[in-house]
Amino acid sequence: MQHLWISFVKGVVFGILLMCLISCTTTTATDVAKPKPRPSTIQNIDAIGKVLGCMFAPSSEECVELRKKSKEQPNFED
Which one of 18, 27, 52, 60 has the fewest CB atoms closer than 10 angstroms to its CB? Predict the structure, then answer.
């Protein structure tokens, strides 16, 4: 039983030392991949409304314009 405790303590100490060595880098994960600002909720609600409107009235002028616009400039942000 004593050997198990010694192995456990050595593992914890080794893990802490490894974490300290890894955390000493100058570049952090937040520097590498900065999150993009998200659009406001009001903009999201407007987009949801347009999608629902085109589901129920696909031949309306607004939907035809949106389809033309999306074919000209596809949106691959997300």
Answer: 27
